Amino acid sequence: MAEYNSLEKIRLQKLEELRAEGVEPYPTRASRTHTSAQAIVEFEAGEKENKETQVTLAGRLRSMRPKGKLSFAHIEDGAGKIQLFFRVNEVGEARLELFNKMFDLGDFISATGVMMRTKAGEVTLQVHDFSLLAKSVTPLPADKDVTQADGTVVRYATLDDPEIRARQRYADLAVNPEVRETFRKRAKLVKALRAFLDDHDFLEVETPILQPLYGGAAARPFTTHHNELDQDMYLRISFELYLKRLLVGNLERVYEIGRDFRNEGVSFKHNPEFTQLEFYWAYADYLQVMELTEQMVAYAAEQVTGSTKVTFGEHELDFKPPWRRLEMRQGILEASGIDIAEHATAEALFKAIKAKHPNKTPDPQATRGKMIDFLLGEFLEPTLIQPTFLYNYPRDISPLAKSIPGDPLTVERFEGYVAGFELCNAFTELNDPLDQEQRFLEMGRDYANDEEEKHPLDEDYLRAMRYGMPPNGGFGMGVDRLAMMFLNKHSIREVLLFPALRKEE
RNA sequence: GGGCGCGUAGCUCAAUGGUAGAGCAGCGGCCUUUUAAGCCGUUUGUUGAGAGUUCGAGCCUCUCCGCGCUCACCA
Question: Are residues A26 and A159 in the same domain?
């Protein structure tokens, strides 16, 4: 049962009084003829010929300035704000008093009248009639700017508590227009990615979120249970293994944009569920995928921000192709002074790191690939600001990627880095069923004592591959991270409408 | 999970261990072209929860809850 504070009690009282006077505070239907923006455009077009513009508008009351026998107010709708002007001459004394006393900031109302321009020049609706569409019981965390005598503007009561903003996103959206804009742009981003892939003959598909086995990434899954089947199920950690099954089925270019779930830490760049884009492209290799990637991201940047140049914090990022290409071995050598090619075993590599950087050493028990990954994260990653493709990865941390011909320890894999963090990951996909089975078994051995890294062997995936899978290039990208970059947001929570939060109470 | 920090009115924030405050919002007035108007008057609190120290706790201690930053974890 809700408990009401003093402000809410006053509004509930008003609500009852309105009902008593025959005004339904939550009518079933509303009507409007124009949005605020349409009304302004139409009025301005007909203004010179003194053409009368009659409209019905609807929106949320955002400000009220009662002035005795007249009243000004602004409502906000999906297209913006517009001023309403109430006079006793048009609406009568009783209705004006009803408006002034019984209506509150946050109420949804509709108003019918004729467009006009005030003395101050603002295009305004002169109201002839109005009605309540929905009473607001809880006051919005309204903000207010006040200009002081010395000219400085003091902003009072802006909703900026990150917890309330995320938990009560509805209130955040209602009072912070720039937040609405953020999510409009995010929608544009997703639309642009779709349009790009559609234009390149990729087929959008949907694969299971609820899976009997999980795979395609090294991450801990969420586990659930199907009652009727009496079977444990997992929320997917990637789309990879299902999408590649489709290549076996002769679908040559497929993609999916959807939610992945990883039961891991939460941080400014990790949310337990996040939006992933993956595509698989038959007869292509990782170099072709690289080119398509830079084109796709540059296209999306232009669609969302109007340019390939994007400001992200202190950086000006330019997504214009071609992006810098850096071989991983070379990059690590430059950043850390260690040539991984000279240290073929984990032990040797560990010694080399310890000799060079005594204060920055990986877990001595780690595999060679993990140590390389450590070097990458520790020394190289922070230096990769402008969009960069880092390519050629160690085989043992890439169980689904194909080796470079003649170099069995290195795979045809790249990751795209921007502003010091990983944006995407792609490779020439392994399509040899026997090699794939071997890789799965190696993984099982390497991580036999590591419950978190142990992955189930997907026999059905191997069966699919044995039917024959065309050579192909695959790609995965965190859409939320791209949104962060394009929208200059430094926390993933700013680009998620409802980020994961601990339960209240 | 570890470390650091924060939590005070509806909102944004003050308050050397000594009477819990301000602005805005709200409420009551005045006001027929305002610009998130102005003027007069006025209400608002389990200081996140619980325990302890103290003559006395918003402030000190402990436990818990939530959030932020950070480290760890993380293709």
Answer: yes
